[in-house]
Amino acid sequence: MDLRQLRCLVGIVDAGTFTDAAIELGVSQAAVSRNLLALERELGVQLLHRTSRSVTPTSAGIRVLARARQILADVDELVSEATSGHTRLRIGHAWSAFGSLTTEFQRRWAAEHPGIELQLIRTNTATGGLAEGVCDLAVVRSHIDLKRFAHVRLTQEQRYGVLPADDPLARRRSLTLDQLRDRTIVIDRRTGSTTVDLWPDDAALRIEYTHDVDDWLASIAAGRCIGITPQATTTQYRRDGVVYRPIRDAPPVDVHLIWNRQDPHPATEAAVALLTSLYQESTSATS
Questions:
Q1: pLDDT surpassing 90 at residue 204
Q2: pLDDT of residue 65
Q3: Cα–Cα distances in Å, from 87 out to 68, 115, 266?
Q4: What is the pTM of this model?
Q5: Distance between alpha carbon 141 and the CA centroid of its chain, in Å?
């Protein structure tokens, strides 16, 4: 059995005749007939009822036809995946992509690289989907082993306290880590950038763990917890009932772009150059 036989079966049913199927497939009518007969011999069943006026699938043919369509669709998708490296760039992220620069990056990429489709993919893994093969590059703010990947540091982001809107601390313009140590702190230990290392070893912290940014925000809005997050979250996840306040004494969060060292996407250099330029422009505008 081979793909030509399956394509001929589907072609005959869709076109309605052997002659029209041959035209659609760009082969001779004799080749269509041979492929169908070979498929029927391989399977040991008759697949089509043939008359002088019509061609219709048998009961076995209906079952085989459905699977043939699925197989051919899977093969077409496989080919598309294998050949789209130069025409599509997938950038993964766990939470906030490039924060306030996300839209500008998308717009400039489309203008400067119209032949390469850009896809931003949110994946709830520590490497933003890179280790899982979901993307070609990823932006990460969590604590991962960067030695595994080629990488560049794009920027450092200030940390923000995330509070219920009715929390007394929400009235302050800025916070300190010490002001938050007595609260229950919600942490995403899979993809988050916050760890207990922000406080002294003897700090008696109350920690609640979550595994998704939406659950993290919901627990804060409900008044049960507070959170700490990089600046990008403040622009990507504005939420009723939640306020963000800068933390004056917290160390910044490194923002890295990572990719596979052995097999980089052809557009990696272009993505690094554009993002580096955008972050430099943003720094200059705020300084």
A1: no
A2: 94
A3: 28, 6, 10
A4: 0.71
A5: 16
257 DSSP β-pair partners:
139, 152
List the Cα angle 259/154/152 in 5-degree steps.
35
**Count of Cβ atoms closer than 10 Å to residue 189 Cβ:** 15
> How far is Cα of residue 162 from the mean position of the Cα atoms in its chain?
25
**Do residues 161 and 245 touch, judged by C-beta distance below 8 A?**
yes
Structure tokens at 134: 């979901």
Count helices and strands (H / E) in the chain. 9, 12
Distance CA 255, CA 121 (A): 17
Contacts of 131 (CB under 8 A, 6+ apart): 125, 148
Express each pLDDT in 23-64 by its tens digit: 999 999 999 999 999 999 999 999 999 887 788 999 999 999
Pairing mode of beta strands 137-140, 227-230: unpaired
pLDDT of residue 287: 64
Check if the beta carbon of residue 109 is closer than 8 Å to that of residue 137. Answer: no
H helix or E strand, kind and range, residue 167 = none
The number of CA neighbours under 13 Å toward the Cβ of 135 is 27
Q: What pLDDT is recorded for position 84?
A: 61
Distance between CA 155 and CA 281 in Å, rounded?
12
**Whole-angstrom Cα distance, residue 275 to residue 101?**
9
Are 121 and 90 in contact by the 8 Å Cβ rule? The answer is yes
Q: How does DSSP classify residue 274?
A: H
Average pLDDT, the chain: 91
